[in-house]
Amino acid sequence: MEIIQKNKNILLNREEIVVLLTENSTPSKESLKEKIASHFKTSNENVVIDRVNSNFGTKNFIVHSKIYDDKKSKDKFEVISKKQRDASKKAAEEADKKAQVTENSEGGSQEG
Predict the structure, then answer these.
(1) I need a labelling partner for 100 at 20 to 30 A (CA). Which of 16, 74, 78, 84 fits?
(2) Per-residue pLDDT tens over the stretch 13-37
(3) Burial code of 68-93, b = ≥16 C-beta within 10 A, e = fewer?
């Protein structure tokens, strides 16, 4: 892993980093988060991968990422995609439905 560019953004409490990485296949964003977090000695939840660029036929990947100082700053400044919002909304609705079903099954068995 070779650091191409490193910029400290004090206003947004983060470092903006461009890294050159050599891999045999295209790395996943999760594996990139782990590698960058271990290299810069920070938590995985503070790392955001912006984009991964490569040229056809090469094993070199240019990774644009951001490392936030803390999770609070990341939550404040990062935009959550519509896909992630919908997934979290569905999970919350399913949890509510399961809670209602368990309440109905427990309360309906008693007759007085």
Answers:
(1) 84
(2) 999 999 999 999 888 989 999 999 9
(3) beeeeebeeeeeeeeeeeeeeeeeee
